[in-house]
Backbone:
């Protein structure tokens, strides 16, 4: 994109999702690199955490438009 090369690698382990991003711009001395990680929670994890505060999960949705949840790997 506009002479800039983006390399993105994604992976997961049993506890987290990871993303490594490398931005290679020829105008810079070296690529800029970022690594993101987020916790990998299961549905029972959310039920337990919310239950500590007296909350229950009534329904699950797949996106901000409230589409049905489709069992993606992001939540067990």
Residues:
């Amino acid at each position: 994109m506009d002479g800039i090369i983006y390399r993105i690698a994604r992976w997961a382990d049993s506890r987290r999702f990871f993303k490594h991003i490398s931005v290679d711009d020829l105008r810079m001395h070296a690529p800029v690199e970022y690594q993101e990680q987020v916790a990998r929670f299961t549905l029972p994890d959310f039920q337990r955490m919310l239950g500590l505060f007296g909350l229950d999960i009534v329904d699950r949705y797949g996106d901000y438009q409230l589409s049905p949840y489709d069992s993606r790997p992001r939540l067990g």
Remarks:
- The chain has a mean pLDDT of 87.
